[in-house]
## 1
Amino acid sequence: MSLFFQQLINGISLGSVYGLVALGLTLVFGVLRIPNFSHGALYMVGAYVTYFSLTSFGLPYIVAIAISAVVLAGMGVVLERLVFHPLRDMPHTHAMIGSIGVLLFLTSGAQLLFGADFRRLKSPLEGSISLFGIGINQQRLLVIVTSLVVMAGLYLFLKKTVPGQTIEAIEQDRVGASLVGIDANRVSMMTFAISAALAAVAASLVAPINLISPTMGDVVNLKAFAIIILGGMGSVPGAIIGGFALALAETFGSTYVSSDFGELVGFLFLVVVLAIRPSGLFSKGV
Amino acid sequence: MLSRNWKTFAVVGLVVLGALLPVLIRNPYFLSVIMISYTWAIAVYGMNVLLGYTGQLSLAQAGFFGIGAYTVGVLTVTYEMSFWISLVAAVVLSSAVGFVVGLFALRTRNEYFAIFTLGVGIVIFLVIEKWESVTGGRLGLIGVPYPEPLTELSHLYYLIFAFLLLTIYVVASISRSLVGRGFVAIRNSEDLARATGINVGTNKQLAFVISTGLAGLAGALYAPNIGFLGPAIANVPITFNMLLYLLVGGLGSLSGPLVGALLVATLQQFLQQFQEYQLVIFGPILVILIIFFPSGLAGLWHRIGNRLASRRAGSHTEESEGEEEPTKMTPTKETR
């Protein structure tokens, strides 16, 4: 039973990371209708920024995460301007190919600058606390708490503030939103900034548990796609629920079936769901 | 554009040049680099049928390449069967898997199709990597033999060259036929194509099976050429590579896949010591191409040709020939 709870905590902490990554992906898809294949690469860059803020400048962990979020938000804006804005009126395949170009550039760029070897990010929270008779890694608790705070903050931003509501307005009806005076360009830039920042936070949180490498974002990116298809592309609650669902399936799958199965389950799920429901579960009928 | 006579001349010249290459190039390494480029080109022709003509981005192309390569690898190495039977089996199997995948994949549209095929590509890769008893897992398969009577590198060159010519001929015939025009109509507007009576589902399925079959053929030819198979050849980065070749050469053009594969794959081979860093340059090139020159080198050549022609003929601009037309993604009037 203790193994079960241990895995439950692991699954929830992994799920909150997946949720953050998938949120960024789903926001960009909702606003720009682009599946951003470079999202995982942004995630990876975010981890490196945190790593160097910690090791080169000796900043506190939380400050390093915040800096990473800000830097990545800036990168998101630059990408939107340089790559996705020029491609907005072209066929949908072009924007996807553009994002693949960005992915290749960022991954190999990181390899060039930082080398292919794995790095370990030291977290200030190394110990574990005992709860109901099971030891819980403090870092995992931090991951869960921080992710939930960020998700709640994002939810309030989207629902309760005017800039946040403009994102939803553009998502629902681009032309209509423009007619009432919402600047679609500004919303696109803002969405990219938020999306990249979320990826940076997620990567920085998970980095002490896993390792940092130029390819760390590849698999996560694919899983995030599986999640937003499960949760409905463009749906915010869907991304969060989907993130937890996939993480729990993976954790328990690799514990009780086999680690190969845990690795495969996300993609099998993706393929099966799309085969049965071509526009995804809970799709809003786009 | 150039006149028809001139064009026939150029094509014949290129074929003769291709046929003479093993005589002209004495260095076996250079020749094998060209042979690898040819095999990539065949797979990229498949991608072009689907993406360039029909407008569907499949990210599983490397997976089907892997199915073709591993079919030949397993049949010739483990079961010691003849290469020629294995070759047929490879094309049949990759087309058959493509057919089944297409049944499901093509129910999805646009972004969903790309993501679905990405998932399929990864599943194929993982199956090849994990199915150790058959594929050798991460270690791969070693010692894929040369096809039966062939013993020398130049023999293999002619085999691959012949299949390349066959591929180009088939793709050219398709692009000129009513079916090919149907593909282009679907690319320009699926709804409009449906409205004009084109069976969108069947045509997309056909394009998908052609593309997976060509990927399988390319993989089958790759196996004896390299002699060693590892699971990485079925992985998604290979698909991205093919995408790069297609974009450089020219999306939706007949010469594009060959030009792109020859140019970029050769360049990649010679820059092999910078393998990890190549993409620092090729990534931005992909972005720049897709934004500014989505019709690649073929489109550029076409534009230059047009300008020259219009200069010669004053204000009169010549009609362009169907198959070399650069990809215009805006709905164009289709003659049916």
## 2
Amino acid sequence: MLKKTMFLGALSAMSISIGAVLPASAADPIKIGLLEDISGDLALLGLPKLHGSELAVEEINAEGGIMGRQIELIHLDPQGDNARYQEFSRRLLSRDKVDVLIGGITSASREAVRPIIDRTDTLYMYTNQYEGGVCDANMISVGAVPEQQLSTLVPFMVEKYGKKVYVVAADYNFGHLTTQWTETLLKEEGGEVIGKEFIPLGVSQFAQTIQNIQKAKPDWLMMLNVGAAQDSFFEQAMAAKLDYPMASPIKVMLGFEHKRFAAPALSGLYAVANWYEELDTPEAEDFKARWRAKFPDEVYINDMGYNAYVAINQYKMLVEKAQSTALADIRAVIATGDACLDSPEGKICIDPKSQHTSHRMRLISVADDHSIVTGKDFGVIEPYWLGEVGCDLTKENPKTQYSPDNLPG
Amino acid sequence: MLTYINGPQTLGNGRGFWISFLALCVAALAYPFFADPYDVGNFAYFLLWIFMAMGVCIMWGYTGMLSFAQTFFFGVGGYGYGVLSIMIGEQFGLTFLSLLLAIGLAGLSAVVLGYFMIYGRVIGVFFGIMTLSMTLALAFFLGQTAGPEWAIGDARLNGFNGMLGMPPLSIPWFGGDIVFLDSALYYLVIGLLAVVYIGLRILLNSPFGHVLVAIRDDQERTELLGYDVRKYQLIAFVIGSCLAALSGVLYTAWGQFITPSSVGLPAAAMPIVWVAFSGRSDISATTLGTFVILLAFQTITIYSQQWALILMGALLLATVLFVPQGFVLGLMQIVQRLLALGTRGAKPAGSKGGRA
Amino acid sequence: MAAEVFSTFYQFADVFAFLILSAAGLAIIFGMMGVINMAHGEFIMCGAYVTTALVHAGTPLVIAQLSGALVAGMVGIVLEVTVVRSLYARPLDSLLATWAVSIMITQSMLIIVGSSFAGVGTPPGSFSVGVYTFSTYRVILFFAAIGVLALIYLLFMKTRFGIFARATMQNPSMARALGMRTNLVYAMTFGFGAALAGLCGALYAPTMTLIPTMGATFIVESFVTVVVGGSNVLLGTAPAGLALAIVRTWLVSWQGQIVGQIGMLLAVMVMIRVMPNGFSGWFAKRFG
């Protein structure tokens, strides 16, 4: 008996060491490491992301997995703490030896993960829309970036409402960079920013900001406020009868403010999104039905949750085209420029130069009763900015985040 | 000087204690030889926070000053290391120069700020809130340094997203640099920890340490006995702050990354939580307890998803209610009592400085 | 010109109301009773959530708000009896205990109620002065803050309970010897503080994002105001709120939010340095 166990033990040890050398057999699952905050301040956004990932894994496994291998999803909850992101990405990479790492909400959490992932040969997929600019061969960005959202939204607003803009932005990287984008795009349209205000994260009282806006008398507002506390602006502005048209690349589709605040706090707000739950194409309806069947209590299927779902399907597409989970093979597929996926929003592709994803962008606006009106369909917009300024991951890998004030070269 | 290594201000002075101490050291040194490399790296990460907790223990447990500024100095150390190591570079072991300079910078700011507070007779909760204000002000400041104007040389502070690009600690060695990551970092931290621990024991059991405890127990009486209380408080504050800065440097070098969230709330409350859990009035309890609680919190977070924070809260609450002197200190006292019962006829060791 | 003057005063009143309402409950629990209550924000959240839930159920706003305060008060009494009571002799340990309670409450709310809660909207009503329009509700908040200060003063100076409470806080054994039921007094006082915190949440609920961690928005301002006020809350809280509101309003209107935020914290450091026992200590020294 004892002998037999020892023999089995030796055998399994052998199979482990062989497994490390030979390509994994069809029976081994593909491991996906997922880091999403489902506790603390960011749970609001992290829960739909976890749900989207779980739905994708369930569907793919039911259809036979990736190249016949089932997916094992290993989710850890970093609780919105950057240090936990560091700990857990190490754990997923060295202990669980995941094939791909996905997740992260804030840009800070992404930047916490990058130095760690860059020392490995593992792929990392960041699933949020963000301020753009990360040029890193280990990373695929799934969410929309400013050129996709603002190059469509700003000209529309200028044409419809006028050229004088007041920017209310969160006082951190996203807010500053997106403000720069707004200024650049406005200049092209002949408009200008007549006032801008940067609000520290966590500030929830806006009486002074409201008055500053009234004093400046803009044609419309660009809202780049971030986080639950800063969302209070909408309620307070409405109460003070501040009824300027608003534009924002992050409201409604991401934080579902129109579901969280009583109407008409958000009315008159325009946004451009690749996904929002009210999207009613047949593909989108089908996707929503599957989601709601699995998670009937979801308050809102936001774009982050949708992106998380898309990311795992993108990964499946990449691995199946590469016939391998190795980063180099996957990147070879991306380099062909044919890493495309038919997603609920439409056909989207990964740009070889920047490894960011193209998106089908649509204009949406919030009505008085907080229902969502779908406006113009801008079609598929490429994430063109990084490629234009000189990031080309098919040639070199600078592992840097660029911005208009920090260009390559 | 070594005579002070044992004394009334530290628990565990007998032969039994030192034998277990040595056993622990040997076990710690041998650990990387049979453990998973991931666990070694993970342990190194836990251990690097302990310096900050030791600082709280010196200031709060021994001197009676509750400082929320540990993460302030953690930030000064971490950002200081980031800026300096990017400017000075990583050749010839110069990262260690950055380490020393960053701690020096933190020490200097501790002298200035400590003088401002302590010589102004700010004590008790007022001291706590003043240090908290200072810490939050730094966190807010660092959070808004996103723009390119906030750069020192090539080092961009980079606001809320955090500072990147600093090298890990390294020294030149025959056949290539030793880079302090994973097991090399583990040994470095173990070494530093042993040195700091012994050093603090000597300090606490020296006449200087007795004065600190006297201040904690009765500031007025200590003053009437002719001691310049403020001088002692300031020194304790500077030592505690430098320890926090050491943690900050090691953390930044470990992950090559630091953000303002490491400075602000809730991070600022964490060292106090660890030390209160461990038993603030003893340096050994703090050292051991901080490691235990960091390991426990991480394990709970890995295995219990959304219930993690509730379990952590319950653990802390139970500690406060049922083991008032602190979890590890409580355990240590029980062990000591059992040992005392074992050596026949010996009196149980009197409970020591449990109230502060 | 009149519009500018009024606008400045309105800004000041807004900040003042925020500081006083968030600090009032803590002034009782921390300032008077010495309990470092890290769960203060959760009392506020409790008041806000109860108010919102009741309004969703059809209760008029004012009644919902009073109920929110009441429920927070009852939660406070439960917390006092189960946890805080054994910690009066070890005030610093109350920090750890209430912090533990705080993370347990927020996380339980997240699991039970969900990650967000739909708001109810600010009561309509606005007026304009010159080019500016203002929300009437925020003016009501200012008067509510004054009302709360008056309530604290009347309760502790003019009622029998207030005398008992002050006696108990000053010298519990003597109070007990004189036949007061100090345990009851402690519980009621703590409950009153919690109810005031709940009232803060109830009043701000219509104007804010409702998430389980919303209490964190208030916690720094409340601690800072109470500590600058000093240990005698009847004397200190109002001037502390006044001074900090002036500093903050001025800095925000001059240099924007971030300077206002950092500047207020630096002002706190300077004020404590100048008055090491807070406003009330300074008053006592000058006029006592």
